[in-house]
Amino acid sequence: MSVWLPSAPCTPGACVERAGSLTALPRAVLRFTAVVALMLVAIALLPVGGRIPAEWVRRFSRTLVRAAGVQVRITGSAPSTGGVLLVANHISWMDIPLLAAVRPARMLAKQEIREWPVAGALVAGAGALFIDRDRLRALPDTVGRIAGALREGAAVVAFPEGSTWCGRAQGRFRRAVFQAALDAGAPVQPVRLHYRLEAGAASTVPAYVGEDTLLASLWRVVTTRGLVAEVDIRPLIPAGSHADRRTLARAAQPVTHEPAWTHAALVSPERASQWSVSKWSLSRSTP
């Protein structure tokens, strides 16, 4: 099994709530149109992207999420210059602009994202480092490219869980990407992402999991009132503070909600059984 190809038990049918209302259809259509329009504007600006000030990129990224009707709350801060590996738990397509609102960065992305409508072109044009998760032999080259970007002073965003989760549980951080930080002598910036309703309850509406589509996930978001995206920037882990990728990955992983094994209660008994086998297999192939 590829080290880049862990899986999660989350599926749209079993884990993702439907909080939208057809009575809010006009507002939802306006939000949907605004998000797509902003993405198109971003694509149009890609040729001059390197000359756009970082603060403008951060503001634009927050505006993109807000256009979907989601409040954004960021706590903590990240270094504004120098190579740094930003790592976060992975729930939604909104994770990407939210991390860009923390610091504009090159994203480590699976090859399939190139095929996403609109967003795929945006991610590719922004300098993403794409990985082919089905080719184990490509792993050393991918780690080397990440380390090279970090040495050049770039920020690189990675989601070490390797798969999206619904938000009520999380996967274990994979270790391979942390080798790049060790090789480059770069610090690691952990970030905790969390989505909830204004009332305070955690929400799975923004999740982009399983066989879900980008458009279906976006539509759930724009039809839901009171969504809040919380971005908690944890203390920086200095370069050289951990001797190996195992301890570095463990130190970087934020505790989001329940431990991953409790997620079995959210899926069918058959699916939970499959997950038990899958989790054991993944632990045997951890890099």
Summarize the entry for a quick read.
This protein is of the alpha/beta class. Helices cover 38% and strands 14% of the residues. The protein has one domain (12-256, 263-281).
Question: How would you characterize this protein structure?
Answer:
By secondary structure, the chain is an alpha/beta fold. The protein has one domain (12-256, 263-281). 38% of the residues lie in helices and 14% in strands. The chain has helices spanning 12-15, 25-44, 54-67, 95-102, 119-125, 139-151, 176-184, 214-222, 245-252, 269-284; strands at 70-75, 84-88, 106-110, 129-131, 155-158, 188-197, 227-233. Strands 1-7-6-2-5-3-4 form a seven-stranded mixed beta sheet, with helices on both faces. Helix 5 links the parallel strand 3 and strand 4 (129-131). Helix 3 (54-67) packs antiparallel against helix 4. The chain starts with 11 loop residues before the first helix and ends with a helix.
Distance between the termini: 11 Å
- What structural class is derived from the secondary structure elements? alpha/beta
Say how many strands there are. 7
What do the pLDDT scores average to?
Answer: 81
Main sheet makeup: 7 strands, mixed
Tell me the count of domains. 1
Radius of gyration, CA atoms, in whole angstroms: 18 Å
Estimate the strand proportion. Answer: 5-15%
Q: What are its keywords?
A:
disordered C terminus, 287 residues, 38% helix, 14% strand, globular, alpha/beta, 7 strands, single chain, seven-stranded mixed β-sheet
